[in-house]
């Protein structure tokens, strides 16, 4: 459940350094000055760029050290293609109606993929009877669905970079719908389990690409509420799934197969709607398409090759795929911030999956509930999630008040409290799961757990995204991989845990483990910058983060903070890419200085 997402920022080099670079790279003769002459007018958003290399695989930079071999190339001047300021081509400036339409369609997919986690679990009794499956085999369907969600996102980043988010949605929703067939018509537990894993692989877009769409459509200072809605959709789904579908399981004419068919019918109606409403929101993809159209229409007539910044030194697709598959694992093993947040999130998600798989056990075994009554207890998950959503507004206010003072660690005030509250909720749920205590008491514990889990879940996404900037997708993917892989595995041994230790002491034990992990956000709050300065990737991005926070701090006194921030970010929708370019490809600074000198000359 996933990702978004992508925001941090590096200081520019001094004018002296830029001048030195230019003098060494660009002759100062009159003939060269003529070469630098820009056409009278360029399309809006386009600016004259430097001379780069054109090869069979695309545009490459020429600023490599003398020790590095530069492949055979043809020198060509580029014209940078960006969005004009305030243009509705820029996803940040899509109309409110279009943004709401895209968000509604995307959030529905995030919700229904989560919905199917628990709708499956409530149908397990009739499925076990029909297919002769064991408890472990049936519970494996919950875990395999989660494992698909863990593995799938590792390949998402290069796919969205190459093909954009729109086609990822369209293809994923279609294949997700069709994969219900393997599950629905299965004659044995093996075909059902294969179907569940395929559903997880194809449905992971609901947890990863949706969060990326939020980052595409909203600048950082406006992402709080949209990201909270995304988290609400994801965490609300499992509560709604069992609570709604328990009525189908209780009806002897429907049961587990019709749970699948009902969901497939809903998706069949939903897919054509996505074709009509969704639009591409990935800015680099839109700019590459715009650059290609300009090349087709205008060629080289304007004195350069129209080029999007993301086209320079663009990795081949399969190279990007290999990195995407390996880098998240590197982050979760080598970056201490990612490692500890991933372990914490894995425990939280483990408890979540214990609830998904174990609530029928608790309320049927201890309280003698029937199918619909046991399914109705899942509403406690919904109530807790809604409470967590509204508590998010307090965290958002704390962030805005303190971000200029302490940076991204301002995201961690609520999680510090949530870690403790989460452990208390587990203990309440466990200690009250006994016959002589009213059934409402464990439901209160469940609601407390989910209110805290909502805050923890959202923080893990946003905090890691803001810590790791241009590497955010890898950091979040690494955290999500461990969180979902480990967390969903808890479902397979839930019944064994309860049989061996009883729900009371099993959940009490997990609550004690949660207490041991509760200091993690406190350590990050007070020592986060110190830890990140000593980590392999994060120390490179610290300067970018300081520059971003400084920019926000300077504007805090403005009467119209939101509009000025939006204007600043709208003019630089590719801010992360540009700042990364400045760090990795200093030659691109030459272009800006050349343009300034040339304009002054005229």
UniProtKB/TrEMBL annotation:
GO molecular function, one term: transmembrane transporter activity
PROSITE patterns tied to this protein: MFS
Keywords: Membrane, Transmembrane, Transmembrane helix
Residues of the Major facilitator superfamily (MFS) profile domain: 102-530
Compartments reported by the entry: Membrane
Leader sequence segment: none
One Pfam family in the UniProt entry: MFS_1
Membrane topology: Multi-pass membrane protein
One Gene Ontology term, aspect cellular component: plasma membrane
Coiled-coil annotated spans: none
InterPro entries: MFS, MFS_dom, MFS_trans_sf
Major localisation: membrane
Gene3D superfamilies reported in the protein's UniProt record: MFS general substrate transporter like domains (1.20.1250.20)
Region (Disordered): 553-602
UniProt feature, compositional bias: Basic and acidic residues: 561-587
Name of the protein in its database record: Major facilitator superfamily (MFS) profile domain-containing protein
Gene source species: Kwoniella mangroviensis CBS 10435
